[in-house]
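Exercise (ungraded).
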Amino acid sequence: MQPGDRVHVDRGEQSYDGVLLPSSTDDHLVIKLDSGYNVGIDREAADVDVREEDVYDIEGAQAEESESEITFDEDLPTISLISTGGTIASTVDYRTGAVTAQFDAEDVLRAVPELAGLANYRGRVVANILSENMTPDVWQDLAEAIHEEIQAGADGVVVMHGTDTMQFSASAMAFMLETPVPVVFTGSQRSADRPSSDNVMNAVCAVEAAKSDAAEVMICMHADGSDETCALHRGTRARKNHTSRRDAFETVGAEPLGEVVYEDREVSFRQDYRERGEADLALAVDLETEVELVKFTPGTDPAVLEAYDDKAGIVLEGTGLGHVNTDWIEYVDDLISDGTHVVMTSQCLEGRVCDRVYDTGRDLLEAGVIEGEDMLPGTAKVKLMWALANAEDVAETIGTELAGEIQDRSVPWT
Amino acid sequence: MTEQFDYDDLGLVAGLEIHQQLDTATKLFCACPTELREPEESTRRLTRYLHPTRSELGELDEAALEESRVEREFEYLAYDSTCLVEEDDEPPHRVDDEAMTVALEIAQLLDMEPVDQVHPMRKLVIDGSNTSGFQRTMLVAGDGEIETDEGPVGVEDLMLEEESAQRVEETDSGVRYSLDRLGIPLVEIGTDPDIRSPEQAREAAERIGMLLRSTGKVKRGLGTIRQDVNVSIAEGARVELKGVQSLDDIDDIVRNEVRRQVELLEIAAELDEREAAVGEPRDVTDVFEDTDSGVIQSALTSGGVVRAVRLKGFDGLVGREIQPDRRLGTEFSDHAKRHGAGGIFHTDELPAYGVTEAEVEALREAVDAREARSASDSASGDEPRAGDAVAIVADDPETAELAIEAVAERAETALEGVPEETRDANEDATSRYLRPLPGAARMYPETDVPPVEPDASEVETPELLTEKVDRYQAEFDLDAGLAEQVAYGEDMPLFERVVEAGVDPTLAADTVESTLTALRRDAVPVENLTDEHIEDALLLVENGGVPNEGLEDLLTALAENPSLSAEEAVEQEDLGGVAEDEVREAVVEVVERNAEQVEEEGMGAFSGLMGECMGALRGKADGDLVSDVLREEIQKRA
């Protein structure tokens, strides 16, 4: 008895006819009935008779028989689609019953036929992972892949990425790459296997953004709950601020950089951006991975700092203007004395760190803490990893805007 | 319709699918109330598109494909009583316990066996009525049976599913839906194809309806129950008739469908004899360049075209009636309408609608359609032959092309007989084409909701409505008519509750069945009354706080001022009962004022004075009490 077999099951006075599914567990056989419904049948009480073996190729049923038609049009720009996995390229996994990523970039093109005719596409797969499994070495692979694609003539790059850690990867690309073309991250909050998935609109808008004039690392996701507009967020200032909504991503501390209207495919920008061709393509992929992000909340044991005493860098997510409990200061002092770089950010997320207002802050500065300005804590972590591996003066680099991660002026926008 | 069919001979096979909304506190997959709202109350609007996907087994459903051919924008109205789950912006919560319990109760009443493990599924629905693009549904139980006079009818399956969003209106770009209804728990009950006559179909539906209502946990009122009927005859085909609103129509709708299938089979036989065929659609705009037909003219002036299809050998059959006031041509027209056209014209009904004889002739010529030749015409030596028919569509070029293709396709199937399809029930118990039959491939697992192992051991068996009718008569002394009215009425749970609380059953029954109806007729806003209002009011009457006669005034006051409690309303309206000494005082006054009459007539004066006493007490005293006191006072003096 194998998944895909047509079976007849007797269970007490009931009988069921259907196809055995791989989602069966030790306790229950899961049968797809001819009506299309799945039911679980108590394995012990069931008397199974295999009627026909291998009626359905369960794995193969996912794949499509037809190839997507990719034709080259000289009048269209070339966009490179890079897949790293995630919901935008995901489908149902029958072993676990959950949604996992299984598609490569070409599958995405097949899954999103609306992309046809917008550009010529190059596709490649850098990883096939859910974004919670993303690691700095995949960032490095991704940066190299993007670099290669741009060298090979891509007029823009779209990175398909899980939404959970998209902002970290986008920040990493922003620090590692000098790009003369747009690099646009997109994903989806509703899996691609449902008709209401936001993947179609996000992918279409991302391609449009990748064709635009803004040579920035951006995140392109729904601007609100409707399928009308995608917001373009600067990768270093974006944050996933909702667990499930389509418009989970927000630019923190400013309006989004721009937007794409789905219906007429119009791309517009609200703020200055680096123009296409302005920068020369360059790559600096080195990262110091011994960096941690530590959040202080009332009662947090300063021992967490001791556990990190061999780290090269620590980003603190402090309270308010950038504080931790006074008792922490000596631990912070010790870390810094031992050569660890400590950057202060705020769990307020909105606003600038200022450790000169209260005594605690002044003591932290005294101890050598670097103020993270108005950087998002996550972005500051990525930047510290990059700065430790690439900058001569880490403190100065942290305080200097490199990729839109710091806003020199705090301009009220709401 | 006068024809009588022998349904056994025809091999009638019918089954029912009954959809019933449950009256649970919260929705099936979120904690929102199961409350309907007015579109004006909406607080948010969103627009979405749906994109069809591959189903679990890699096939695309034909019905879903047809729905998706036109890309449409959907607009959704959200409320302060809906949440992100309805907006498809939050994963569904776990299956609502209460809904599962009610479903299991219903399974028990239908003599069904629950499955070991219920797997929530996604059924592809891309007409926009579900924000997700699918309806969540799960098979809860199978293998049941109900009794009818003509024998048992098997109950194949019981599904627990989410109700779809309510369609509000068509907009310029698509359809507007309201999210209030989306997610209300719904049970779908499918019978086996055991039904053999229209009457049995109706009886089975009535029986299932009675069992559902016996739970006291189903919603009542328009649109809360919908019946679909599957009908086929031996030589015909399975046709799903959707959305029969009234139980009373079920037998008629089955009769009409049988007739339709019989007629279509006869037409097919006739077409076969005539060696009929369907031609390639052609453009015949030229024929109608100077037409007086308003419909065609307006299509042409806005850049439209006229497309025609020659229906070889169809002459006379397109106009043949197959259901009351519906012809084969109406079926063609339904298909054309599905593709956006306003309808069709065909030669069996022309000249008419401003189309002239000359235009019909030119039309026939343009598509090589021959006139019929009768035996007398053929004296010249030509064989008699059946004529051809022509169907035309006038519309914008794209619509006209799609629509005439659809007409040609439907005409092709007329050669074969009865097509399998889904039809929409009309109000007059006829039906019209809706879409192809849905396939089984449109189902895939709802991976966001873990399977549920139903526990039927705790489920109670409710008293059936039929049993209630008997008990109300035996226990409460209600007459048969009133007992049935109460048991089957919407206020049955309220009735039982107030009787349980100590209210006299006759008073309770009269109140829920007559008093409220009478007040509604007098334009009292009784819909404002809560169950608490009614229960408290009845208890006040029962306990003597308010006389019987004051009940209507009390309910009226509460309906007009629903924020009041019953006691506050009594106070405010001064409806309180009058104590015995006050009654006696008033009665004595009346008796003394009429001392002469009392002396002369004795008890004979009773009825006249009773009216006077009640008047003096302004209806605030209990009639029985007044009558007792008055009788005593008269006796004292007589």
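Further reading is listed at the end of the chapter. For now, observe: The radius of gyration of chain B is 33 Å. The CA atoms of residues 1 and 70 of chain B lie 38 Å apart.
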